[in-house]
């Protein structure tokens, strides 16, 4: 389950909350930043986050670049001041929200069933603000083991960008089986989830209906009707459809973003560790993704676009790990080079028209194929190695826990 927060799990009208939030910030910084300038710059910084479509910067980095230079202040001078604000003043906004007991009951039932439950709020706030709002909802992360809580420090895309949903699923290791996005905002929660081919449930009020032409993977109703609806739908109808072009592009965009986030969880020495015998280190995964993108994926796509029905030989890239001594290479540099290569590939794919996606090719292993199928192979390859990276982090965490001294 991917669950929106405001007006889905927490009673919180943004039409009321946002003005109060802005006023609170203005009061806190009144002595150093004029209110009008602070508000306008916050709004433009937020818009920059909403517009971001590049995987090489977190939303925080995007916001900082649109915020601090305009105000003529240094981020380092304001880090602690913002921390104080979220620690002392932000909690005063709680009275504008209210607990939704039916949402808490649904969450408890979901965990009882063994569902993996993730928060899918728009990551336009720092983690502390999101955690506090979960507390206000009666859903403390210290009590409820949410698998994922996005924030502007760790995410690169915001709703309604389909890449946000791909980044969330990639962060979870591309879970197999049914997935449902749940939210109250059709334009930001439901429409992009449908575009990505995900199961979705629209939290509706006042008798709003899903519409007669809604797909089987789409439901609507109040939060209490969510789990009964899930029970009524076949699991296979709730599995994400990765054959859509929008889905493919979102996955390809999410991969470099997620590996960057993963890299923040390991120290320099851990880049080259092998938590399990025979498994690749994080450096080897990055070198592999870099070389396959620059030497296989991009050349193939360009060949299909430049030639009519070209022949594409099979390439055994797995052996490169030993042949090219990946374990001796610089992992962070490999990750940066992969990101650069992937952005170039995305720029090319973003420019294609419908006819381009159907251009033919002949693959040595797969036979007659098309550019769309070839991109689908890249998507599957990305997902495989994201799952490998998630397993690496999990094995590393277990190893670290086992080695920790017991008190």
What keyword list fits this structure?
single chain, 407 residues, alpha/beta, 53% helix
Would you write up a description of this structure?
The protein has about 400 residues and is α/β, with parallel strands linked by helices. About 55% of the residues lie in helices and about 10% in strands. It has 15 helices and ten strands. The chain has helices at about 15-30, 35-50, 60-70, 75-90, 100-110, 125-135, 160-170, 185-195, 225-230, 245-265, 280-305, 320-325, 330-350, 355, 370-405, and strands at about 1-5, 10, 100, 120, 180-185, 200-205, 220, 310, 360-365, 365-370. The strands form three sheets. Strands 4-1-5-6-7 form a five-stranded parallel β-sheet, with helices on one face. Strand 5, helix 8 and strand 6 form a beta-alpha-beta unit. The longest helix is centred in the C-terminal third of the chain and has 33 residues, at about 370-405. It is globular and about 65 Å long. The protein starts with a strand and ends with a helix.
- What is the CA-atom radius of gyration, in angstroms? 23 Å
The number of distinct helices, counting runs of at least 4 residues, comes to 15
**Helix fraction?**
40-55%
Got a strand count?
10
C-alpha geometry: globular
Model regions low in confidence, pLDDT < 50 over at least 5 residues: none
User: Which strands sit side by side, in order, in the main sheet?
Assistant: 4-1-5-6-7
Would you tell me the overall average pLDDT? Answer: 94
Largest sheet: 5 strands, parallel
Distance between the termini: 37 Å
């Amino acid at each position: 389950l991917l669950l929106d927060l405001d007006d889905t799990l927490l009673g919180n009208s943004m039409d009321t909350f946002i003005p109060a939030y802005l006023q609170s910030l203005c009061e806190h910084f009144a002595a150093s930043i004029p209110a009008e300038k602070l508000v306008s710059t916050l709004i433009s910084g937020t818009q920059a986050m909403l517009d971001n479509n590049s995987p090489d910067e977190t939303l925080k980095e995007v916001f900082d670049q649109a915020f601090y230079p305009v105000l003529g202040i240094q981020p380092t001078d304001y880090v602690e001041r913002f921390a104080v604000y979220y620690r002392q003043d932000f909690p005063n906004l709680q009275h504008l929200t209210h607990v939704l007991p039916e949402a808490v009951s649904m969450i408890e039932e979901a965990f009882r069933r063994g569902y993996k439950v993730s928060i899918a709020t728009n990551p336009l706030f720092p983690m502390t603000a999101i955690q506090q709002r979960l507390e206000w909802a009666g859903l403390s992360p210290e009590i409820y083991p949410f698998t994922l809580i996005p924030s502007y420090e760790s995410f690169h895309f915001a709703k309604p960008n389909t890449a946000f949903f791909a980044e969330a699923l990639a962060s979870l290791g591309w879970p197999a089986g049914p997935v449902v996005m749940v939210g109250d905002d059709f334009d930001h929660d439901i429409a992009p989830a449908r575009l990505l081919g995900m199961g979705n449930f629209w939290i509706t009020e006042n008798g709003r209906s899903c519409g007669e032409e809604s797909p089987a993977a789409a439901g609507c109703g109040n939060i209490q009707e969510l789990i009964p609806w899930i029970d009524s739908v076949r699991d296979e109808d709730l599995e994400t459809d990765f054959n859509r072009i929008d889905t493919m592009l979102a996955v390809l965009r999410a991969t470099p973003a997620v590996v960057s986030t993963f890299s923040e969880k390991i120290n320099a020495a851990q880049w080259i560790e092998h938590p399990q015998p025979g498994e690749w280190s994080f450096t080897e995964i990055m070198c592999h993704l870099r070389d396959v993108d620059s030497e296989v994926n991009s050349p193939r796509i360009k060949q299909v676009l430049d030639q009519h029905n070209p022949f594409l030989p099979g390439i055994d890239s797995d052996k490169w790990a030993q042949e090219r001594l990946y374990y001796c290479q610089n992992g962070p540099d490999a990750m940066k080079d992969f990101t650069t290569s992937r952005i170039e590939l995305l720029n090319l794919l973003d420019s294609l028209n419908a006819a381009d996606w159907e251009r033919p090719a002949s693959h040595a292993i797969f036979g007659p194929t098309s550019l769309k199928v070839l991109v689908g192979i890249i998507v599957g390859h990305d997902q495989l190695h994201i799952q490998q990276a998630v397993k690496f982090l999990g094995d590393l965490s277990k190893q670290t826990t086992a080695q920790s001294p017991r008190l």
